[in-house]
Each structure stands twice: as structure tokens, then as C-alpha cells.
Amino acid sequence: MEPLSLSAFDALIWAGTAFSLLGLLGLGYCIIRVSRAKRAQLDDEAMRKELKKVVPLNLGALFISVIGLMMVIFGIFLR
Fold first, then answer.
1. Containing domain of residue 24, as a range?
2. pLDDT tens digits for 34-69?
3. Quick one: average pLDDT of 10-28?
4. What is the rounded distance in angstroms from the CA atom of residue 16 to the CA atom of residue 71?
5. DSSP 8-class letter at 54
6. How many domains does the structure of the chain reveal?
7. Does the structure show a pLDDT above 80 at 1?
8. Distant-in-sequence contacts of 7-14, Cβ < 8 A, 24+ apart
9. N or C: which end of the chain has fewer CB within 10 A?
10. Is residue 60 part of a domain?
11. pTM of the complete model
12. Helices (H) and strands (E) in the chain — how many of each?
């Protein structure tokens, strides 16, 4: 039996997968946070404040997810 060897590109694929999953978890967190704010039936001003807090988190999670997907595609392409 051959020992399992992990090339740099395989590591890039797995790291990209981890980044993508982290980004998806962040997006899920944003969805849950907005859903809770909506269920709390906040007034217009309070809802705007909550959404202003969530938007940067949402964009950051989306960015991390996209970077992870790019890493996966790059690793597969160069493999």
C-alpha cells in the first residue's frame, strides 16, 4: 500500500473548502440574526440599526466564501 501524499494543490483545495464552509456558516449566522430581529418586530429605527450591523458581517462572509471557492477552482485547475 502506498502512503498517502498530499500535494500543495490538494492542500489548497482542502483549505479552500474550509474557507467556503466558514463563509457559509457566516452567511447562516447573518440569516439567523436578521430572522431574530424580524421576529422581535423591532421598530423601523431599531431594525435599521440591526441591519447596519449585519451588512458588514454578511459581506465579509460572502467574501470569505468566494475566496474559498476561488482557491478550490485554482487548486483543481493546477492539479
1. 8-78
2. 999 999 999 999 999 999 999 999 999 999 999 999
3. 96
4. 5
5. H
6. 1
7. no
8. 7/79, 9/75, 9/76, 9/78, 9/79, 10/75, 10/79, 11/75, 12/71, 12/72, 12/74, 12/75, 12/78, 13/71, 13/72, 13/75, 13/76, 13/79
9. N
10. yes
11. 0.84
12. 2, 0
